[in-house]
Q: What sequence folds into this?
């Protein structure tokens, strides 16, 4: 399957979003700047605000090399956040389109598969403001619905919940920690649980640019249920105006259960 038409559409979508960001600058208000949850694992504790709509989209590329077939995967994650009040928001999330290219070094054969990932419905509740040594706190919950293509579709309703804790540190530094847990089904239909943990250290570099370094375990599970996934990642974000931000991230997997190298690029727009 030729992925170039998909990449062309992604470039077009990104260009349209950047143009939308430019259009926003003419009527950006005096409120705080946009605060996306992408691209890293640790999420912000803040919500978008009552009546606000925020769209966060991206393109991710993963490379996995092991004794098994080498895999390269492109996904198009998207998160829609709708402000229901000053402390709550509705969230619709998906990894979008997935295209996987495989190469078996033993046989020299290539394979390609593609499909749509499941969609999740959830919420975020901001329940505590940060003050002094006390963090700003939010709770994020979601349920994955079996809406994807047959090869990528989950089995039943798969819940996940995470705490988002943020500390504002001196000299433009910040710390975000997100512990969480989720549920999934194995190949035999038995339900099992897994943990999530991420810690991200951020730094405001200029009025418009920031960076972060993160250590994360997107999955903490027994070996029979996929094992632990561990990674270290670093990235940058740039505010084009108060209602638009672009970002980039590079990820290094720390064990064989995690893609060895991943790249992520995204755009976030708020209205």
A:
């Amino acid at each position: 399957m030729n992925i170039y038409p998909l990449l062309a559409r992604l470039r077009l979508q990104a260009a349209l979003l950047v143009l939308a960001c430019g259009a926003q600058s003419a009527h950006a208000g005096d409120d705080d700047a946009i605060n996306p949850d992408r691209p890293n694992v640790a999420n912000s504790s803040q919500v978008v605000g009552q009546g606000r709509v925020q769209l966060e989209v991206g393109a991710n590329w993963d490379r996995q090399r092991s004794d098994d077939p080498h895999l390269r995967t492109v996904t198009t994650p998207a998160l829609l956040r709708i402000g229901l009040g000053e402390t709550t928001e509705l969230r619709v999330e998906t990894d979008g389109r997935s295209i996987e290219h495989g190469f078996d070094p033993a046989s020299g054969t290539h394979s390609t598969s593609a499909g749509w990932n499941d969609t999740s419905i959830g919420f975020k509740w901001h329940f505590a403001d940060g003050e002094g040594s006390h963090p700003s706190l939010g709770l994020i919950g979601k349920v994955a619905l079996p809406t994807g293509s047959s090869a990528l579709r989950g089995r039943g309703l798969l819940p996940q919940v995470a705490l988002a804790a943020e500390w504002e540190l001196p000299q433009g530094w910040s710390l975000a920690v997100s512990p969480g847990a989720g549920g999934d089904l194995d190949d035999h239909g038995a339900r099992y649980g897994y943990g999530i943990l991420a810690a991200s250290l951020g730094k405001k570099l200029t009025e418009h640019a920031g960076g972060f370094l993160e250590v994360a375990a997107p999955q903490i599970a027994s070996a029979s249920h996929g094992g632990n996934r561990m990674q270290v990642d670093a990235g940058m974000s740039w505010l084009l105006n108060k209602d638009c931000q672009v970002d980039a991230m590079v990820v290094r997997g720390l064990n064989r259960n995690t893609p060895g190298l991943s790249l992520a690029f995204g755009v976030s727009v708020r209205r």
